[in-house]
Amino acid sequence: MVAHILEKGYRFKWEATSRVTNFTDLKINDVLLDRMAGSGCVQLRFGVESGSQKTLNHLRKGQTVARIKRAVVACVGHGISANCSFITGIPGETAADREETYALISDLHALGPLVEILGPQVYRPYPGGTLYEEVKKYGLHFPASFEEWENFYDSNPTGSVFDESPGYPWLSAGENKSLPKVWEVAHYGLNWSAARNPVKKLVGFWFKNLHWRPRWFGGPDLWLFMFLRKKLLKNGI
Questions:
Q1: Average pLDDT over residues 55-75
Q2: 95-109 vs 65-77: helix axis angle to the nearest 10?
Q3: Which of 3, 34, 102, 139 stands 20 to 30 A from 16 (CA)?
Q4: Largest CA distance in the chain
């Protein structure tokens, strides 16, 4: 595809999804990244999911924290944005595992404004795989048909980035309350701190230093900001 775009001289920007394990000498290397950037590639999206190797192994991601960092550093080095998505609230995930995720997020964010953090959003069970079978043992009720799954998370408490509490039995009451707010602090604290808009930068500075760094996922200021955010800005996050 890259060769075709360059050969035809097309002028458009494009994005793609990849795995960090594709970043090898024989696949996505410096030569290809240069050509991708030259052909208009502006962003690669990665399902990073966790900074805990134990959790990555449990999810069968087939990737290491070191390879995650390598892929993101390579993208930034070639002027390509790296969108890194994370999840939390997985059965078996400990506070120490989450801290490893937060530490990786901080490390990736420190690489500069070309790194965009998506999440960590609270895990949502979907059919298929051992993890889904694992959560079913907790007595949760899921749709029995494909049609019911279509809109299941539209009205379910875990379906929106603005959720307040998933109510998962494998999480404590405090975790059910605080984990949905982690993405709020990460997005508005880290992503916004790298924005060009001065208002966003100010908000980002506030949440990055007063909430993200001390791992404070709550407080009246966060509640007020999110209340105004939901009321005033209907589209996007």
A1: 96
A2: 20
A3: 102
A4: 57
Nearest alpha-carbon partner for 18 in 50, 45, 48: 45
How far apart CA 156 and CA 131 sit, in angstroms, is 19
Rounded CA separation 45/1 (Å): 17
pTM given for the model: 0.90
Cα 100 from Cα 71, distance rounded (Å): 18
pLDDT average, residue stretch 104-116: 97
Q: What is the per-residue pLDDT across 120-145, written as a single tens digit (0 to 9) for each? A: 999 988 888 888 888 889 988 888 88
Beta strand residue intervals within the chain, DSSP E = 14-18, 41-49, 81-88, 115-122
Q: State how far the Cα of 82 lies from the Cα of 148, in Å rounded to an integer.
A: 34
CATH classification number, 1-124, choose in 3.10.620.30, 3.40.50.1010, 3.20.20.70, 3.90.950.10? 3.20.20.70
Question: What one-character-per-residue DSSP string does 95-148 give?
Answer: HHHHHHHHHHHHHHHTT-TTEEEEEEEEP---SSHHHHHHHHTTT----SSHHH
- The type of residue at 140 is L
The structural domains of the chain, with segments of one domain joined by +, span 1-124, 159-237
